[in-house]
Design a protein that fits this description.
Length: 250
């Protein structure tokens, strides 16, 4: 993995974003800005449009409005580098493919049935070492736990180092220790490479601990700010039915 990010990206701006499906409006009047070196968490109830918004940013969902990327001089970046870790990856867990085979194929270097060259194998080993999981290199992909698989996917999504890293509920079903490890690693990546990170998560206590900014969606933006500000709003209460207390508060 590269040792630094040039941070050519300064901000991502979403202006008047709308997504419709047939007669249904999935997102409307979305106006947001994300910055490099910032971890932004999208929260909301199921069906609020969180994943839809991510797919619009990734270019996987048609939308109206404008999504633009600017450098530090205000000039538009036409082809920003975007890394993506999905909520889950569907594959046949009985397939005899190792983590190294999978990563080599995903990087487009060689088909999974070809022997991996020494140079490529070394690069994959270094990528996994960055995620503290080099021991997984020869493990069968289908034998990984949920947390181990997500670390492998995170290694792929951050090589080369992206301007924007998108994480769609990346640790669904992972235990609390695995959650803390994953979030800690993500914030290390933010600090080391100064990338913008956009995260969808239901883990409100961990979001309070790790996120710089929180956006509450209900088909449009109904609250945004730091976690304490958003969690104290009536909009948060209307969505979740309670106000989230700060850690240590009775």
């Amino acid at each position: 993995m590269q040792t630094h990010n040039s941070c050519g990206l300064c901000s991502i701006t979403l202006k008047d974003i709308q997504v419709v499906s047939g007669q249904d409006t999935l997102l409307d009047n979305i106006n947001l800005q994300f910055h490099c070196g910032e971890l932004t968490a999208l929260i909301g109830k199921n069906g609020a449009g969180k994943t839809t918004l991510l797919k619009a940013i990734l270019g996987e969902r048609p939308y109206k409005g404008e999504i633009s990327y600017q450098d530090h001089h205000g000039a538009k970046i036409i082809q920003p580098k975007i890394g993506y870790v999905p909520q889950q990856m569907d594959f046949d867990r009985s397939t005899p493919v190792s983590v190294s085979d999978f990563m080599a194929a995903a990087r487009g270097k060689s088909p999974v049935w070809w022997k991996i060259g020494k140079s490529e194998k070394k690069q994959i080993q270094e990528m996994l070492e960055d995620m503290n999981c080099a021991y997984l290199a020869d493990r069968r992909l289908g034998a990984l736990s949920g947390g181990e698989l997500q670390r492998v996917l995170l290694a792929l999504a951050t090589n080369p180092v992206p301007d924007l890293l998108i994480l769609d509920e990346p640790v669904s079903g992972v235990d609390m220790a695995g959650l803390d490890l994953f979030y800690h690693r993500v914030t290390e990546l933010r600090d080391k490479y100064h990338m913008a990170i956009l995260l969808v998560s239901h883990d409100l206590s961990l979001i309070r601990r790790y996120a710089d900014k929180v956006v509450l969606l209900d088909k449009t933006v109904i609250a945004q700010g730091d976690a304490d500000e958003v969690y104290a709003t009536e909009a948060f209460r209307s969505v979740f039915g309670y106000l989230e207390k700060e850690e240590g508060e009775a």
